[in-house]
Amino acid sequence: MALALGVGAGVVATAGVAAAKPSNSGSSSAGSGPNVSVSTNGVQRVQKGSATATSSGTGSVAIAHGAGSAATAAGAHDKARVNGTNSTALAGDGTNNTATVTGNNSVAFAEGGSNNTATVTGNNSFATAIVVGTNNTATVTGNNSTAQAELGNNNTATVTGDNSQALAGNGNNDTATVTGNNLIATAVGGSNITATAP
């Protein structure tokens, strides 16, 4: 596996996250058919099948499409959307955070600050823009890949490919970019660090 490094004095860490699934009370009936759940402004609007959506805060929107998937928007103007099976999107602990998953068995977390964005398009992938920061962006387009932009402001981690990893954070204005398969780019532990692979 190829590796690109831009390293300062620290490492990126991922915080644990837990999201509770909502009850079906006050929602449309759950039964056979599509798995879809919609919650806005703290109110359950639709609940069908095993998908779950939870929202809280003004302007919050959570939409989950797919069996076993969950979307949680837990802050003002936070948006969480899932389209896939057994996937999770969480936007919370701040404002104007957006988490989006299109794919199966994938996870996107955008939380712990404001204007953070985590996006996954693919299967078995993971994107996080979390843990005390603003304007962080983590994007995965591919399968079995990870992008993490954390612990600072204006950090960007982008993966386009399979089985790859991009890490940016523990500082400000760090950028890690991967284009290809089986690659790693790391820009952590300082500010204004750039790492690109290949």
Description:
The protein has 198 residues and is an all-beta fold. It has no helices and 21 strands. The strands form three sheets. It has a ten-stranded mixed sheet, with no helix packed on it. Strands 1-20-18-16-13-10-8-6-4 form a nine-stranded parallel sheet, with no helix packed on it. Strands 11-14 form a two-stranded parallel ribbon. It is flat and about 45 Å long.
How would you sum up this structure in a few lines?
This protein is 0% helix and 51% strand.
Descriptive key words:
mainly beta, 10-stranded mixed sheet, 21 strands, 51% strand
Helix % is: under 10%
The parts where pLDDT drops under 50 for at least 5 residues are 7-31
- Basic shape: flat
Order of helices and strands: EEEEEEEEEEEEEEEEEEEEE
Number of helices: 0
**Class derived from helix and strand content:** mainly beta
How many domains in all? 1
Oligomer: single chain
Spatial order of strands in the largest sheet: 3-2-5-7-9-12-15-17-19-21
Distance between the termini: 11 Å
Average residue pLDDT: 88
Rounded to an integer, what's the Rg over CA atoms? 17 Å
Q: What percent of residues are in strands?
A: over 45%
Total strands: the figure is 21
Largest sheet: 10 strands, mixed
Helix and strand arrangement:
Layout: E1 2-7, E2 36-40, E3 43-48, E4 52-56, E5 61-65, E6 70-74, E7 79-83, E8 88-92, E9 98-102, E10 107-111, E11 113-114, E12 117-121, E13 126-129, E14 133-134, E15 137-141, E16 146-150, E17 156-160, E18 165-169, E19 175-179, E20 183-188, E21 194-197
Parallel strand pairs: 1-20, 4-6, 5-7, 6-8, 7-9, 8-10, 9-12, 10-13, 11-14, 12-15, 13-16, 15-17, 16-18, 17-19, 18-20, 19-21
Antiparallel strand pairs: 2-3, 2-5
